[in-house]
Specification:
disordered C terminus; binds zinc ion; two-stranded antiparallel ribbon; single chain; 9-stranded mixed beta sheet; Aminopeptidase; globular; alpha/beta; 9 helices
Length: 396
């Protein structure tokens, strides 16, 4: 048999978590979690009462089966460059609109992975979201393992786990040219460098699943820049399509967190609310050429430069010979969680409590607003901005 499904009523997701957490350490069942998880003490699984998840051995090639079965399903996105399974979770929504949530593009940003795991848990136990969503909690699992294996350095400027190997290109800066589809026969980025395998899988996932919106969860060391940001969408030539609904969606997510006591300082909600990341060029009016930020961290050999996921994703693809590879600009929300540490990485109980609350709020903002019926990309007139926005303003 090519595949097998286990219906496991009490399981949530196979998560990345630090080993050695004493009585908190959950079950690590070889039958369920496979050899990799069993052999690697860092990969453990959390089990929650009352959730429903079908753990399948489907891979990206069988994504159509995952979607057709229309139930909460764990599947394997693929293998990382060193053979680690990259898990993904499909949660069907109440509509045909599709969203993608990714975390762990930078393995050092463990708090971001934690948010994605919590979101997965919440979705498996709660009400169906409006959007049908795929969540990839740790796109570069080995890099996250590296970060976890040096607990004293979590959050330090050593940035353990950010890059896949010495001299590797920034994982968030190795996308194809804006306006162009991923070329599987070539696998190179905008400036001709090889795209790492994990990012290749992400690009294939987007081509097959065709999400209308993506939340890319990162974390940022300087907590004054933590917040929820949106990339301005453009056509395939880089001409702006209009930023208002993207920015309002991001600011509404930030407000949701802020009103409940979370930290989204980078959105400047008390002065002049913004969804613009502080390093990005100002969004321009629809029809004008949108400048993009092509330089990230300052590294030798320009390893920190290149096309970011946000730029590539928010640019439409057109004119491909295979027209199935064309797509609209995706709505890209980039989340910068303040600080790299997970709740469990903090030494004092009070810090752990604060971080736990913060993690819950970021996950809830994604669940309630990003995956909710707000500013949907459905082009039918009744689904356009007015009613969505009105509904959102009445939120607590
Ligand atoms: Zn990052």
């Amino acid at each position: 048999m090519r595949w097998m499904i286990s219906i496991v009523p009490l399981i949530v997701c196979t998560l990345l978590f630090a080993a050695g957490k004493g009585s908190d350490a959950p079950v690590n069942d070889k039958d369920y979690y496979g050899d990799t998880a069993s052999n690697d003490p860092v990969f453990v699984s959390f089990i929650s009462e009352g959730s429903n998840l079908n753990r399948s051995t489907y891979t990206l090639k069988e994504l159509d089966m995952v979607v057709r079965e229309n139930r909460n399903t764990e599947f394997v996105l693929g293998e990382s460059k060193y053979g680690q399974k990259i898990n993904a979770y499909y949660i069907p929504g109440t509509s045909h609109q599709k969203a993608l949530v990714i975390a762990g593009v930078h393995g050092s940003e463990l708090s971001a992975i934690d948010v994605a795991c919590r979101l997965t848990n919440e979705l498996l136990q709660g009400q169906q979201p409006y959007y049908s969503v795929i969540i990839v909690p740790a796109l570069f699992p080995e890099n996250a393992v590296k970060a976890i294996s040096e607990p004293e350095q979590i959050g330090s400027t050593m940035n353990v786990g950010r890059y896949s190997y010495p001299d590797a290109v920034d994982p968030n800066r190795q996308m194809p040219s804006p306006g162009k589809a991923f070329d599987e026969n070539n696998c190179t980025d905008h400036v001709g460098r090889k795209i790492e395998q994990e990012n290749q899988l992400l690009l294939k996932l987007i081509e097959v699943f065709k999400p209308q919106r993506v939340a890319n969860i990162h974390a940022i060391r300087d907590t004054s820049y933590g917040g929820i940001y949106a990339d301005p969408r453009t056509d395939h030539n880089g001409l702006a399509l209009g930023y208002s609904t993207d920015s309002i969606l991001a600011v509404e997510m930030a407000l949701f967190i802020h009103r409940q006591g979370g930290n989204v300082a980078g959105n400047k909600l008390d002065r002049s609310p913004t969804a613009l990341y502080y390093k990005d060029p100002q969004p321009v009016a629809a029809g004008l050429l949108q400048k993009r930020n092509m330089t990230g961290s300052v590294l030798n050999a320009k390893r920190g430069s290149g096309v970011s996921f946000g730029t590539w994703g928010s640019t439409a693809i057109a004119n491909e010979a295979d027209t199935s590879r064309n797509r609209d600009a995706m709505r890209i929300i980039t989340i910068e969680y303040p600080g790299y540490k997970r709740s469990s990485d903090h030494r004092t109980a009070s810090r752990r409590t604060v971080q736990q609350k913060q993690t819950e709020l970021f996950a809830a903002a994604i669940k309630e607003i990003f995956l909710g019926k707000y500013f949907t990309e459905d082009k039918s007139p009744e689904m356009q901005n007015g009613p969505n926005y009105t509904a959102m303003k009445s939120r607590p």
